[in-house]
Amino acid sequence: MKQRILLILLMISVTYSQNQKLTLEGSIELGLQNNKELKIAQSKLRSSEAKISEVNSMFLPQLKLMANYTRLSDNVPPFQVTVPLLPTPIKISDPLLNNYTLRLSIQQPLFMGLKLLSSKKAAEYNFDSAESELNKEINETALNIHNAFWNYYKAEEVKNLLEKSLQQIENHLKDTKNFLDNGLVTRNDYLKLQVQYSNTKLQLIEAKNNLEVARAIFNKTVGLPLEAETEAVADELEIQNDDYDPKKLIIEAKQNRDEIESLTSRLKAAEENITSARSGWFPSVYLSGNYYYSNPNTRFQPLTNEWKNTWDVGVTLSWDIWDWGLTSAKTTQAEELSIQTQLSLDKLTDNIEVEVYQNYLNLVKSKEKVVVSKISVEQASENYRIISEKFKEQLATSTELIDAEVSELQAATNLTSSLIEYKMAIVKMEKSIGRKIY
To answer: Where are the alpha helices (DSSP H) in 235-325?
Structure first.
């Protein structure tokens, strides 16, 4: 019974792997779950969050426990005092060779030259930057999935078109063979169709290979095994009634792009790091306290072999009066990093403007190509229908029929390519202005 259940489960698993149909939405969801780059970005985000916790802990009192044992050598003399007019010294205490100390210390920073506050803000800005980087990586991954999906879908459609064209040529070959047997066409006409059949078959072989390559790329993009049997499923592609204003698109991109948000946060963090570097010019002030439990306790004289406790509280000021330009060098480095980040932000903004405008032009172009391709398909299909009917009536030559078939196939292929190019142009346009494409 168990063997039958295992066999059924295995068959279900194999059947599922052989018939895995994926929509665009399903592909994106699957790809985002399995993408390694996203996992790296998520790890960086968690690291940035941990950095905030690290800096916050520096604002809080630091509690430390220390234990110490010391053994003195046996030749230590007793503690004694020599008094004038007395022949022998007065012994105060015998030497205690074993020393035990427990110390519990607490230290609270009061002022660090704004180092802690600026470090906290810098960590928070770096976290915001990592969060924006994660969002950017998600969008980049989604774009790769879009591209892999539509290339896979296109390869499948091209293969289907070639198979359809091959079937049409086979039908014409049968008709032409009958015409040849009845002396209605020349052998040359029949050979021309055979050559066209062979050429189309070669194209189909190439198309099938391209399909397998596209499938493999798609599978790895969404995190599936290389040879997984998948199928890209999509609704009929149509042109959308969209009307984009390039100026508004550029404004939206500057407001929404994750890359700009990330660099802006980095710039703020760099400015806070300047303040942190300058803290070396200011004193540091700490409030500290200690609790001692020792045997012997050196604060009690004379020393006795007893456990005694004492405590102390104090304020400590530490100020580096001269550090040979260390603070100045750190400050200069922080300032230059801020300048570099600002220039990178300006450069990124310029590049985004060009990217948005270029994607806008590509979208307009691809939309026009779809319109022209649809007209070409209608014309080529009608031309093929007319020539095919004429050929059956022996009013058209095999050359005209072949030309009509080639034109119809090329027009259909161009339409498929144009529709997918248009679809990807929309996706790239949406991504370039900072919209989510997942």
So the answer is: 246-256, 258-278
Structure tokens at 260: 């700009």
Residue 328 and residue 248: Cα distance in Å, rounded? Answer: 45
Lowest mean pLDDT among 35-49, 83-97, 146-160, 317-331: 83-97
3-state SS class at 317 = strand
Do the Cβ atoms of 207 and 155 come closer than 8 Å? yes
Quick: pLDDT tens for 32-49. Answer: 999 999 999 999 999 999
Looking up tokens 């259940």, which residue turns up? 5
Predicted confidence at residue 9, as pLDDT, reads 36
Could you please report the per-residue DSSP string of 140-189?
HHHHHHHHHHHHHHHHHHHHHHHHHHHHHHHHHHHHHHHHHHTTSS-HHH
Q: Distance between CA atoms of 252 and 356, rounded to whole angstroms?
A: 10
From residue 308, alpha-carbon distances to 208, 289, 292 in Å are 89, 17, 8
Nearest to 288 by CA among 308, 312, 271, 266: 312
The b/e string for 220-237 (b: 16+ C-beta within 10 A; e otherwise) is ebbebeeebbbebebeeb
What number is the average pLDDT over the span 308-327? 94
pLDDT at residue 91 greater than cutoff 80:
no
Q: Which two structure tokens, joined as six digits, stand for 202? A: 């070669």
Structural tokens at position 232: 């890209």
Token pair 């920073």 in the structure block, residue? 109
**Does residue 241 register a pLDDT over 60?**
yes
The predicted pLDDT at position 19 comes to 66
CA separation for the pair 136, 140 (Å, rounded): 6
Residues in the chain: 438
Phi first, then psi, for residue 185 (nearest 5°) are: -135, 160
The CA angle 190-192-196, to the nearest 5 degrees, is 120
pLDDT band at 16 (very low <50, low <70, confident <90, very high): very low
Asked if residues 330 and 280 have their Cβ atoms less than 8 Å apart, the reply is yes
Token duo for residue 196 = 């066209």
Domain 20-60+112-283+325-432, what fold?
Outer membrane efflux proteins (OEP) (1.20.1600)
Report d(CA 169, CA 388) in Å as an integer. Answer: 11
Report domain extents, the chain: 20-60+112-283+325-432, 62-111+284-318
Report how far Cα 26 is from the mean position of its chain's Cα atoms: 19
Report the Cα 164 to chain-centroid distance in Å. Answer: 41
